């Protein structure tokens, strides 16, 4: 898959998001996430990408790039939407991909006297 093919897919993806009335910032973010994903998977036949491939990609990013849980969630949302739009397999492809669990923070109660 060439750089031009990636740009074309990202452009078509952004158009679909625009039609679904996604916010401009979301469209930009999802476009960036999709570009990163497609660049990594450019040697794959995208219709053959499965949940294990995506899971391994996310694990690699978690371990090597130390991505945040928010970015992980954006990537998963982007990849799921992409496969839903272009390959009609969002639910199948993303079913066993890990969901993002946010760490619980201890809130401190401050009382006024």
How does the SSE layout of this entry go?
Elements: H1 3-19, H2 24-40, H3 51-65, H4 69-87, H5 90-94
Helix pairs in contact: 1-2, 2-4
**CATH domain fold name:** DNA polymerase, domain 1
Instruction: Count structural domains.
Output: 1
Specify the structural class: mainly alpha
CATH architecture: Orthogonal Bundle
State the helicity in percent bands: 55-70%
- State the major sheet: none
Strand content: under 5%
Low-confidence stretches: none
Quick overview:
The chain has 113 residues and is mainly α. The chain is 65% helix and 0% strand. The mean pLDDT is 85.
Describe the model.
The relative contact order is 0.13. The chain contains 5 helices and no strands. It is mainly α and about 110 residues long. The longest helix has 19 residues, at about 70-85. The termini are far apart. It has helices at about 5-20, 25-40, 50-65, 70-85, 90-95. It has a single domain (about 5-90), classed as DNA polymerase, domain 1 (Orthogonal Bundle), CATH 1.10.150.130. The chain is globular. The model has no long low-confidence stretch (mean pLDDT about 85).
Comma- or semicolon-separated keywords:
mainly alpha, single chain, 65% helix, DNA polymerase, domain 1, 113 residues
